[in-house]
Write a structure and sequence with these properties.
The structure holds two protein chains of two kinds. Chain A is α+β, with helices and mostly antiparallel strands. Helix content of chain A is about 55%, strand content about 20%. Chain A is rod-shaped, with a radius of gyration of 53 Å. Chain B is mainly alpha-helical. Chain B has one domain. In chain B, about 80% of the residues lie in helices and about 0% in strands. Chain B contains four helices and no strands. In chain B, helix 2 runs antiparallel to helix 3, helix 2 runs parallel beside helix 4 and helix 3 runs antiparallel to helix 4. The longest helix of chain B has 28 residues. Chains A and B meet through helix 1 and helix 2 of A and helix 1, helix 2, helix 3 and helix 4 of B. Chain B: Belongs to the sbp family.
Chain lengths: ~250, ~110
């Protein structure tokens, strides 16, 4: 650097031209002034050193951003924005999923209860579950062994047609696939021999069932025609404990 | 000698405490530091010239920092903060260079 260059930038205000001003004070005050000025100068130097280090430290932390141009910064900002948006939509999706799942739990809970209810009803209908409730008890006295399979089958079918949910003949559960066999006096249901008197228990609307049996030319008439007798009693609480064998 | 001790103490303090710069101070601290550096170089040069006066040093130190910060603040308000910061740094840098040249002449006689 040339001498001229140095003088050009002479810091006039930092070069004390009035350095003689404190010199007018007496020697004791001058000494005091020196102490104070030393302390203040040191304090300012301390502040400078502190600020310098702090600034350098904070600049180091932000190093990777300071070199970036405006376009870079805009791009970084765009990326961050896009990322934020993606994360937000992800959050929304997750929240929706949580909502659906918690909603689905109550839905599936009610669906399960419904399914269980239906399974019970079906179990009663197809004979895999015991049933109880209001119904009809029919006792057919057949001393002469005159009741044919047709009569018994008629009785069962009439009961079923009238809305019987569960039917039992002499402790044998009657279901859709049940068959009545044997010869008069030695009737069988699903291969199980029956013994007179035949006791039919049907769970269902008692009045409907009785009407179905008592209709003219119906089961009761048929039984009477064969020479046997039948008694029909309604009941509010009947039990069909037997279940179909072999599932 | 005392100012150098103060400077060293300040540096050590900054290293030990390691504070984070408050957000409002972040635009002004670098400029203030450069302005203070200018004052310190000026003071050092005055001392070598034998005309150092603590009062002048203190006033120039404080006013340098304040004016530099003020200029940056004003620039921020006007929307030209970055440019004015550059201007301040350039001016102060030139002055530091000049003072450094004077110091160099004193120390090395060249």
């Amino acid at each position: 650097m040339t001498y001229r260059g140095a003088t050009m930038s002479d810091p006039v205000d930092d070069q004390p031209t009035d350095g003689s001003t404190p010199g007018t004070a007496p020697s004791g005050g001058r000494r005091w002034d020196k102490v104070i000025s030393g302390v203040v100068t040191a304090a300012l130097a301390l502040v400078l050193g502190f600020a310098l280090v702090v600034q350098i430290r904070s600049t180091e932390e932000a190093e990777d951003r300071t070199g970036a141009t405006e376009e870079d910064l805009v791009r970084i900002l765009d990326e961050l924005d896009a990322r934020e948006e993606a994360l937000r939509s992800q959050l929304n999706e997750r929240e929706q999923a949580v909502e659906e799942l918690s909603g689905g739990r109550t839905q599936s809970g009610s669906a399960l209860a419904e399914a269980q209810r239906r399974a019970e009803a079906i179990g009663v209908l197809n004979g895999t579950l015991p049933a109880r409730g209001p119904g009809l008890r029919v006792v057919i006295e057949d001393r002469e062994g005159a009741v044919t399979t047709a009569v018994l089958l008629d009785a069962i079918q009439e009961l079923r047609g009238a809305g019987a949910e569960a039917i039992e003949v002499d402790g044998v559960r009657v279901v859709a696939s049940s068959y009545v066999g044997g010869s008069p006096g030695e009737l069988t249901v699903d291969g199980t021999a029956l013994e007179a008197p035949y006791e039919i228990v049907a769970i269902g609307p008692p009045t409907d069932l009785e009407v179905a049996l008592n209709v003219s030319g119906g089961v009761v008439d048929d039984v009477a025609r064969t020479g046997a007798s039948s008694t029909v009693t309604q009941s509010d609480e009947l039990r069909v404990e037997s279940v179909v064998r072999g599932g | 000698m005392i100012p150098i001790l103060g400077l060293v103490a300040g540096v050590l303090l900054g290293l030990l405490l390691d504070p984070t710069v408050p957000l409002w101070l972040q635009p002004y601290l670098p400029i203030a530091v450069v302005a203070a550096l200018d004052a310190v170089f000026g003071g050092f040069r005055a001392r070598l010239d034998g005309i150092f006066d603590a009062k002048v040093f203190v006033i120039s130190f404080v006013s340098n920092v304040v004016v530099a910060a003020l200029i940056v603040f004003l620039g921020d308000q006007l929307g030209v903060g970055a440019q004015l910061s550059t201007a301040v740094v350039v001016v102060l840098g030139i002055r530091i260079f000049g003072n450094a040249a004077a110091i160099r002449r004193h120390v090395f006689r060249a």
